[in-house]
Specification:
Number of helices of chain B: 0
Oligomer: heterodimer
Radius of gyration of chain A: 13 Å
Largest interface: A-B, 25 and 27 residues
Shape of chain B: globular
Helix content of chain B: under 10%
Helix content of chain A: under 10%
Structural class of chain B: mainly beta
Shape of chain A: globular
């Protein structure tokens, strides 16, 4: 069965960096685009970034453009999110999610999430 | 990248039907049949309930249905059950990004 397991969350100071990972199993990871979606405490879902199956194209929300970088290692079945210049408003649970096909914004499987807290 | 507009809350009694609206623009909901709906219970990850406006993933009850007219999409839940109480989010592809609605809290009375 499809499994997505995020890791790498924690507490970081404003201006700091953090790298999240998402280990995928149960499907052909190299064939599917992947998303990062976040949810601030008590708030709604916010799309963060998407990467195509082969890493050829990446898309970002305006709120993270220039600060976050999405990447993947298909040999390790792992998705990454490098987060730099972190701000208090980046505090959230970060989910990785698989797209149903291509870049459609249809997230058919989600991980359990990892909490990132930006605080001094 | 403005969020889609959903009502903050809706409620209904067991057995009744409810509809949640999701209003976007001609750049997202109105341009693509790529609206999806997610159910989220407290402390849990979201779950895909409807995709491509009206399609149901395998395993999702046929009590859940979706539709779209112009820039507004809708999720209808018929025969409300206690376990339907959750937050619901709409989502639309928007060309070079993806936008979510603000979420609707469904209370089953």
């Amino acid at each position: 069965q499809v499994q997505l397991v995020e890791s790498g969350g924690g507490v970081v100071q404003p201006g700091g960096s953090l790298r999240l990972s998402c280990a995928a199993s149960g499907f052909t990871f190299s064939s599917y685009g992947m998303h990062w979606v976040r949810q601030a405490p008590g708030k709604g879902l916010e799309w963060v970034a998407f990467i195509r199956y082969d890493g050829s194209n990446k898309y970002y929300a305006d709120s993270v453009k220039g600060r976050f970088t999405i990447s993947r290692d298909n040999s390790k079945n792992t998705l990454y999110l490098q987060m730099n210049s972190l701000r208090a408003e980046d505090t959230a649970v970060y989910y990785c999610a698989k797209d149903l096909r291509g870049f459609r914004g249809i997230m058919d499987y989600w991980g359990q999430g990892t909490l990132v807290t930006v605080s001094s | 990248q403005s969020a889609l507009t959903q009502p903050a809350s809706v409620s209904g009694s067991p057995g009744q039907s409810i509809t949640i609206s999701c209003t976007g623009t001609s750049s997202d909901v109105g341009s693509y049949n790529l609206v999806s709906w997610y159910q989220q219970h407290p402390g849990k990850a979201p779950k895909l309930m409807i995709y491509e406006v009206s399609k149901r993933p395998s395993g999702v009850s046929n009590r859940f249905s979706g539709s779209k007219s112009g820039n507004t999409a809708s999720l209808t839940i018929s025969g409300l059950q206690a376990e339907d109480e959750a937050d619901y989010y709409c989502c639309s592809y928007a060309g070079s990004d993806v936008v979510f609605g603000g979420g609707t809290k469904l209370t089953v009375l």
